[in-house]
Prior knowledge:
The complex is a heterodimer of chains A (307) and B (329).
Chain A: H1 7-17, H2 19-48, E1 52-53, E2 60-61, H3 67-72, H4 75-108, H5 112-127, H6 130-141, H7 146-153, H8 157-164, H9 178-202, H10 206-214, H11 219-248, H12 252-255, H13 263-271, H14 277-300
Helix pairs in contact in A: 1-2, 2-14, 4-9, 4-11, 5-9, 7-8, 9-11, 10-11, 11-14, 13-14
Chain B: E1 3-14, E2 17-28, E3 32-36, H1 43-51, E4 58-63, E5 66-67, E6 78-81, H2 93-97, H3 99-103, H4 108-121, H5 137-149, E7 155-159, H6 167-184, E8 187-192, H7 195-201, E9 204-209, E10 212-217, H8 219-224, H9 229-234, E11 239-241, H10 243-250, E12 256-258, E13 264-279, E14 283-290, E15 293-300, E16 311-315, E17 322-323
Parallel strand pairs in B: 3-8, 3-9, 6-7, 7-8
Antiparallel strand pairs in B: 1-2, 1-4, 4-5, 9-10, 11-12, 12-17, 13-14, 13-16, 14-15
Helix pairs in contact in B: 4-5
Amino acid sequence: MASTATFGGRVSDAFWRKPRLLLALLLVPPVLWLGIVYLGSLFALLAQSFFSIDEFSGLINYDFTLKTYGELFRPSNFDILLRTVAMAGAVTLAAAIVAFPIAYYAARYANGRWKVIFYLGVMLPLWSSYLVKVYSWKLILAKEGILNWLFETLHLSWVLQAYLSVPGIGGYSLSVSWTGTFLVFLYVWLPFMILPVQAALERVPSSMLEASGDLGAQPGQTLRYVILPLALPGIIAGSIFTFSLTLGDYIIPQIVGTSARMIGQAVYQFQGTAGNIPLAAAFAVVPILVMGIYLTIARRMGAFDAL
Amino acid sequence: MASAVKFEATSRFFGDTRAVDDVTLEIEEGEFFAMLGPSGSGKTTCLRLIAGFERPSKGRVHIFGQDATNTPPYRRPVNTVFQDYALFPHLNVQDNVAYGLMIARVPKAERHHAADEALDLVALGGFSKRKPSELSGGQRQRVALARALVNKPKVLLLDEPLGALDLKLREQMQGELKSLQRQLGITFVFVTHDQGEALSMADRVAVFNNGKVQQVDSPLVLYDSPKTPFVADFVGSSNVLPVEMVQRLIGVAKLASLRPENIRLAEDGLVGTVESQAFLGAATRLEVAVDGARISVLLPKGAELPNDGSEVHLAWDADALNLLEATNG
């Protein structure tokens, strides 16, 4: 038998006799990638945050210190953190609220052609360039943009003006307001919320909803006691995307919104123009910590019980 | 006795499909009622019409004398044991069973107590804190039963509840369900495709085919005197003799059913040729070709068996031949 085997055949035979060898060969490249290139560079970044910068010479002082983390709590820096976390929270909450009915429709009612249209509709925006989408939104939201024109045509300009005059969320036009930044974030990350929620709802058999009704629950109670708890793992999965993507993004707030910075922009500027790598690294650690805290709370609240 | 459930010329159409076609049916209070039929016969849709998951396209549904046609499921005094049990995976067994009481705003301690009692009733005391995923199929089925019973429904609906269980467990549960129904006195409506199950458990059985009710009778009457060829064949695989043969035998131009176990081999009688035989344990079934028709004969164990291809004479008592009313199935 062995005499007739080709080289490929002999390799297959060897793998069949030693299955662990095949597993090892399959796993080594990705583990090297993940371990050295990916986690390694992340670790190098984190290590930087424990160094400090010499304020006079601008040189990095390689002694272990928590001084850089202390700088995060300076009011100008701490504002950036608060602003970013608030924005990420608002975007995540809004994405969950907007995504849920869409995902529910897709999971419960859409069939055949409508399901295809749903997937196309959700995924299509992901196929085009992120920059193009953000600049399109800048045009839509601008003073001369279609949204302003629409309000004028409907003689509702006063509503928009009243809204823009609210301090904090308003501004000269939507494209230079926090509301504008929020809308663009919501638009860009929405597919990342819809898909996991839809996947979670897809796994809930309709008999479970019927059982709830059969046991006396009105549709609202079924939503609260059965559908939402079972969709929660999907919502959490989606919120990990929307929350962390918003925490780290530095392009959207730069193109649409006010001049006040978010974490991503701060990291970009401190490592680039300012050359303050330790502070940039310390800023970069914040989203990781926030996500860790967020997931711990979600776990404590039983978000993963239905998994 | 008052009727627990009443269908009045009720139909349910799905597009062109007549899932339930003009069904008129009365289920009495306190009885164990089975709806029997092959898949797609409309029996499950009928159950869903009682539960309120489906609304009739035509006709009305009454529950305890009240017109429930436009009543949503959550306002009906009925509870369902689902085919897939439909236990809530995020709740433990106790909270699953207490779900209906939680919705009804029964205080926590009280509803947990009631849930534990219901679990005792189905011999699952001590399983309160488990998750449904940690239970076996048979245990889940009992939880589903307890979850329905704890609400003290006026009618309990069971949708093929034993379908997913293995034979041994199924036989055991048949007995338990039967005694549970006696003990509680609740009307049970039970959907099954297994004629043995329907005959052994139910007080009365409705046989469904193509969305229509073929016959409603006690198991004994159903077995001995089927009214249509379909019932004769579906309940206990009776032989249905063609009109010409019945005409020749007793001079009546009708279809007739004849139970395989009521036929014996004799010195003279209907002549036929043995085509095949199958050993079934307690009996042996012969397939005998007679005038182009095929007749099954069930011979008890120990009887002398003819060879395949040999000629036999079939005989039976006169009252074993049951004339059928309808000629179509």
